[in-house]
Amino acid sequence: MQQYDVAVIGLGAIGAASLYHLAKAGAKVIGIDRHHPPHDHGSSHGDTRITRLSVGEGEQYLPIVRRAHEIWRELERISGESLFEQCGALVFSSTPDHNADNASGFTNRTMRLALDHGIEHEILSANQIRERFPQFRSILDETVGYYEPSGGYLRPERCVAAQLNLAESQGASLHVGEKVLSVESFEQGVRITTDKRTFLAHKAIVSVGMWTRELLEPHFDYLLRICRQKLFWFELEVGAEFGEPSPVFIARWGASEHAMSYGFPPLPGENSVKIATEQYDVESSSDTLNRSISSSEGQHMYDAYVAGKLTGVTQRVVKSAVCAYTVTPDSNFIIDEHPEIPSVYVASACSGHGFKHSTALGEALAQLCTRGHSDLDLSAFSLKRFINAKPGAA
User: Fold this and answer.
1) DSSP-based three-state secondary structure for 89
2) Which of 151, 177, 208, 297 lies 20 to 30 angstroms, CA to CA, from 62?
3) Residue 394, pLDDT above cutoff 70
4) Calpha distance 96→93 (Å, rounded)
């Protein structure tokens, strides 16, 4: 029975990063995944993922994403892969009733955090947005926008593959296509049983996304919801005009929580743009997630979030995909020691906005496992904040 310093279970965004940083630090480490990463069964796929320094989801994320941007560039230099396209990020509210004093609005939060933390940015009017980015000609005159030149997109499949390859080249062992059945304590650490063998490790990191409830039940059942998300690539019209460089964008189209979409510039060699939304109303499960997308779903996306909003985009769907968000009650991460299994860190449930932070979180988790503390403050993601959410809690 082989024994390791650390076992990393789940090799998506955080798992691949943790494995890389552990191997880089000289740890004897093993990575295990039920599929063959990078793959499209979880949450670490879809060609592109938005990143930006002013993270409207909360101030606690800013030090993490700053460090992540540094590491993405380091990984590019080491691997020779193009991972991070810094094309700029545009966050705007195109609503007739936008309230600049509403601190709870996503665009306003993004602006405030940039001001408070010295992040380079511009505040753009509707006319300035139209002039620079003609794909947004149809926005309302009341539109207000935040533009961050340091933002852009990551290539998730490349990011995962690069980190796994680098980890393996530095001595990490990979076991893919192998399902973990249980994670248990034993006197010297953790026993991991798969459908093929058993491993022993002094510590373990569980980063399995939507399979967390299944693997660690019942401890996380009441904290995690799995929500199916849909991604669409719409064909461009002949002669479509986009800004140069064209930014990633996050747009608020109305007061409803459903009136938000995000998208990307056309990728080189591709005559399409990726558009998506987020939904948290309908819950799924790891074994019932519908991975196919109907033509009616594509038509609804076009009618609701493209027609009359983005210029130069046709209703023809050239590609679509399904992504699973594993969501916590407050939409913030869980990164903490398992409440009942010593030496196990649970790092998952990134609620749809984790990829941009993942390599910095992997570095922090590697530090926790090898030296007992991390450079980043991860206290905001502790399980303690849910102590009263557990069924039966006083």
Assistant:
1) strand
2) 208
3) no
4) 9
> Residues near 281 by Cβ (< 8 Å), separated by ≥ 6?
none
CA distance linking residue 67 with residue 72, whole number of Å: 9
Q: Does residue 391 have a cis bond before it (omega within 30 degrees)?
A: no
Q: Helices (DSSP H) in 307-381: which residue ranges?
A: 358-371
Pairing between strand 152-154 and 334-337?
A: unpaired
Q: Residue 232: left (phi > 0), alpha (psi -120 to 50), or beta? A: beta
Quote the pTM value: 0.97
The answer to whether 232 and 224 have CB atoms below 8 angstroms apart is no
- pLDDT for 349 equals 78
Q: Could you tell me where in the chain the CATH 3.30.9.10 domains are found?
A: 89-149+225-327
CA–CA dist 335, 70 (Å, integer): 21
Helices 358-371 and 62-79, interaxial angle, to 10°? 90
> Does residue 388 carry a pLDDT above 90?
no
Alpha helix segments (H runs only) across 151-294: 156-169, 212-216
E strand map for the chain: 3-9, 29-33, 49-51, 84-85, 89-93, 122-125, 144-148, 152-154, 173-176, 180-186, 189-194, 198-206, 225-236, 248-252, 260-263, 272-276, 283-284, 313-327, 334-337, 344-348
* Domain 3-48+156-224+330-386 belongs in CATH node 3.50.50.60: yes
Average pLDDT, the chain: 95
> Locate tokens 């069964």: which residue?
41
Residue type, 10: G
Residues 240, 343: Cα–Cα separation, whole Å: 54
- Distance between CA 125 and CA 139 in Å, rounded? 10
- State the span(s) of the chain assigned CATH 3.50.50.60: 3-48+156-224+330-386
Fold of 89-149+225-327: D-Amino Acid Oxidase; Chain A, domain 2 (3.30.9)
**Ordered strands of the 152-154 beta sheet:** 49-51, 152-154, 84-85
